[in-house]
Design brief:
With 100 residues, chain A is α+β, with helices and mostly antiparallel strands. Chain A contains four helices and three strands; from the N terminus they run H-E-H-H-E-E-H.
Chain lengths: 100, 205
């Protein structure tokens, strides 16, 4: 078996993006400040990576106001879910490959 | 990327999925303490209701005597408040140790999942008091407490689900055998909490 890299996703090469997607796989939706809390990153770093995921069509963004404060919630799209699962599969395959 | 990096990466994914969806700042020791409070409360209630004044095998009072009901209500309320305070205080301490915030996305989900059955059960108990169905209160509250735990267990340790199931079973038996409410509360809120707290403490702390 040759090394199949078609499932490997460059978007998830960035650790923060991979972690954001992991959180959104385990939860139906998550808000910005909770994401920041759990990933322990700066506002700017998180925002730019969220933007990338949004542009790829991997996540949905829903802006609203709670007590007049902006509250942005993120959720995975079907496309994002498939991309993440494929990426995990690619990682798994890589591990199996190395064992041979 | 080499083998070790890959395994590490997958481990991290797993860890962050769990950390983002489960609230683990629940102290096992607080479970044991809450169980002990419940047992103390049950002893107070037992002595008041069954007493030592009457002939062997008879009670001094029935739960439905108005001043007894009030006494039991306040004992239960005191146990509830002290238990809540203990759970919050020890949960905060554990959260600090684990570097987790106490009021985050998962604890909010947990709070709302547990809150709904608890609130319904509480209101139902008030209705029972109002209608004079005292026999049903102990069992019903156990059942609703168990439902609350089962609902909340998605967001925390899986042992909570088992605790919930046992509370439900106990509550149903209590409804089936009215008149032994105090005994069932001692078992459900006392003994089960102590066992559960001990298991969680051993396993996770």
């Amino acid at each position: 078996m040759g090394l199949d890299l078609s499932l490997y996703n460059k978007v998830f090469e960035n650790k923060i993006r991979l972690q954001i997607m992991s959180v959104l796989m385990a939860n139906d939706d998550y808000d910005f400040s909770s994401l920041k809390d759990i990933l322990d990153v700066t506002d700017g770093n998180l925002a730019s990576n969220l933007k990338t995921l949004e542009k790829e069509g991997y996540i949905n963004v829903e802006k609203s106001f709670v007590d007049r404060k902006p509250n942005t919630r993120y959720s995975r799209t079907t496309k994002g879910k498939r991309a993440f699962e494929n990426h995990l599969l690619a990682l798994e395959n890589l591990i199996k490959q190395k064992y041979k | 990327m080499n083998q070790k990096d890959l395994l590490e990466e997958i481990g991290q994914i797993r860890q962050i999925m769990e950390r983002s969806s489960k609230f683990v700042s629940i102290s096992g020791l607080s479970g044991v303490l809450i169980g002990l409070y419940a047992l103390i409360g049950a002893c107070l209630a037992y002595i008041k209701v069954y007493g030592f004044k009457s002939e062997f095998g008879y009670r001094d009072h029935y739960v439905s005597d108005p001043n007894i009901t009030l006494y039991l209500f306040f004992v239960a309320l005191a146990v509830l408040l002290v238990s809540l305070a203990t759970a919050i205080f020890m949960g905060r301490r554990k959260a600090k140790r684990l570097n987790q915030s106490t009021w985050n996305a998962t604890s909010k989900s947990l709070f709302f999942a547990v809150g709904l059955p608890l609130l319904s059960g509480g209101i139902l108990a008030l209705v029972f008091i109002n209608k004079g169905y005292y026999d049903l209160i102990a069992g019903t509250l156990l059942v609703f407490y168990g439902l609350a735990l089962a609902a909340g267990s998605t967001y925390t340790f899986k042992e909570v689900r088992w605790l919930g199931l046992f509370e439900i079973v106990l509550g149903l038996i209590a409804i089936f055998l009215p008149g032994y409410g105090i005994v069932f509360w001692a078992l459900g809120f006392g003994l089960l909490h102590i066992i559960y707290g001990f298991i969680v403490y051993k396993k996770y702390e």
